[in-house]
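Budget justification note: compute hours in this period were largely spent on complex prediction jobs such as the one shown. Inputs:
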Amino acid sequence: MKDTNCRYCTKGEDIAGIVADLEVSTLYLTKDQSYKGRCILALNDHKTELFQLDPEELQAFSRDMARASKALFEVFRPGKINYAAFGDTYPHVHFHLVPKYEGGKSWGSPFELPLSPDNLASKEELDARIKEIKSRL
Amino acid sequence: MKDTNCRYCTKGEDIAGIVADLEVSTLYLTKDQSYKGRCILALNDHKTELFQLDPEELQAFSRDMARASKALFEVFRPGKINYAAFGDTYPHVHFHLVPKYEGGKSWGSPFELPLSPDNLASKEELDARIKEIKSRL
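Corresponding output:
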């Protein structure tokens, strides 16, 4: 069920575009691309903790997460992908999927939040990345 | 397969004790308890990215994560649980499960890494927490 007060139900302004609708979640590319390929995977249903998902939804969400991270890995070839769900004040299950690059920004420490407006890629670049990730899903 | 160079295969020094062996992972309480109930859930097998798990292992790992976070929620009643896998330099699949408390440390922003030696609970407290979490699994 959608919650009109929730930024992940209503699509927040830090979202560059939808990469794909997966089994039970939606994969978004974020406008901030200071970590090349950074995405958010948001559960379609408005739930706040992983243990609130019913068993089938949980299984499907884990498949969506593996599928999305594999696509990011194949496109961007990062050293490691970081996966994180915080959401204290936006409690809608969503994971940041953040490719990290050896020797690059925050390598060896947690990626930075909040999303920075200083690292916006151009619309053309964002669209190209969306297309590329989509092709590997 | 265990890797003797990996802190999650060999049990790192930031671990207070094992809470439980779950289906395909091990739940640890961390010594740092600046976020009351903070744990690490580490996959038993030495793999580095979620998409490297075979389908059954991935399903079981998601069940372990839901089960562990539900237990933490029931014991500590946090406002939100944060789930995060970084591991750039310790690339063994493990999630930090970090209960966050409204108005408490880092509420509304990512929890802090690295684990702080300033917030160690006593051995008695750590053991009591391990026991309590275990009883809810």
